[in-house]
Amino acid sequence: MARKKVKLAYIINHSNRKATYKKRKYGLLKKISELSILCGIDACAIIYGENNPRAEVWPSTIGARSVLSKFMRLPELERRKKMVDLEGFLTQSIAKVQDSLKKQMEENQRKQMSYFISHFIHTGEYNPGNVNLNDLNDLTTIIDNNLKEIEGKLSSMEVVAEEETGNRVEPMHNHVGVQERETNMNYAMKSDDEHLPLDLPFDDVNIDTNGLWSI
Amino acid sequence: MARKKVKLAYIINHSNRKATYKKRKYGLLKKISELSILCGIDACAIIYGENNPRAEVWPSTIGARSVLSKFMRLPELERRKKMVDLEGFLTQSIAKVQDSLKKQMEENQRKQMSYFISHFIHTGEYNPGNVNLNDLNDLTTIIDNNLKEIEGKLSSMEVVAEEETGNRVEPMHNHVGVQERETNMNYAMKSDDEHLPLDLPFDDVNIDTNGLWSI
DNA sequence: GCAACTATATATAACCA
DNA sequence: TTGGTTATATATAGTTG
């Protein structure tokens, strides 16, 4: 702000709003980059401007996705009674962490898959009630990817139909239990300390949380 | 910066770095909130400080996840030749958009599931090769959720084992094709315009993209 | 380690070409 | 609209309890 202390409220005038947006977006990115560099922390920015349904991503889509993957996993960690040892999470090389996540994910997926298959085979119906759809929005991309892959594989693969199968699929009772333990295996206990939300609002900032947010 | 023009480089001294981090984090959040309010855009911040493996999230985990879900879907949209109509994407009520995403997701999942089931039934093996594991890191949370749900359902459900099943599951060839079309059905064509990465670096900022980033 | 306090560096609202 | 310029509001490095 300069020349006048602007009052913190939605700028009605379209031109002004756009101009301000542009200037401040630049300023914000600069600040973020400075913070990243000065303090050596990982950072990315995702900005949905007006009339721009596609977000602007910085420093790159790849970088942002890496960071966000880490975040998307957070709520679950919280739910698991904050058992993660952050020290390790941050200091281990990312590759290592991702590797272990990958392994765990494979395991989880295998088990989930087994259950669905079992359920499908036994009842003959696909039951989406088992899936929490609210948490699955971000799955869309992934599933689309998979469909692409599947499409590719199918075109180079003969699926031989068989009328029956002798395969027996076990229900998941103990698998789930085991999974529970394995999931936390690599982590040390960590005591609680609150961390969200940050202490807001600022001095004269009155935040309207109506609606979503981005950056 | 004040009292001295600080040189833009990692602050070696631990105390200084932490102090700077704290001050600047506050400043950054303030800036973000201002931008949100002044320009009416959705915004969230996710910050991984040093020694803090659990991100600080603003304005809330829920808000951030909503925003990020939108983002996580982006790369796919790009891949789909930028066919999204952003106007609609932003102006439609979030609920509406999420609803359609949800429907699409259900459909995708159903089809993917069908393929896996088919493959499993015919070959008797779970083939993780169909899944792109790099893109699936963010799945972990979701899968864990599902396992929780499954666990719950199982404890109140009797799975009756059957030795055989007459169910025939068709492979997915045309389903995939159909899905492809349906996915884009609700979107208008949109011409290209570049949007990432943003024009960086700033004047004297020399960004080291080695490693990941966050905020 | 932390808050408060400056002195300065930066960001940016209003203006204008 | 887009891009400078300038006057002012803010952010913050360094310093002090």
Automatic annotation (TrEMBL), chains A, B:
MADS-box domain mapped to chain residues: 1-52
Keywords: DNA-binding, Nucleus, Transcription, Transcription regulation
One Gene Ontology cellular component annotation held by this UniProt entry: nucleus
SMART domains found in the cross-reference section: MADS
Biological process, per Gene Ontology: positive regulation of transcription by RNA polymerase II
Annotated Gene3D superfamilies: Transcription factor, MADS-box
InterPro entries referenced in this protein's UniProt entry, alphabetically: SRF-like_MADS-box, TF_MADSbox, TF_MADSbox_sf
Subcellular location: Nucleus
An MF annotation (GO) of this entry: RNA polymerase II cis-regulatory region sequence-specific DNA binding
One protein family per Pfam: SRF-TF
PROSITE patterns from the UniProt entry: MADS_BOX_2 (PS50066)
Membrane-crossing segments per the record: none
Protein name: Agamous-like MADS-box protein AGL80
Organism: Cicer arietinum
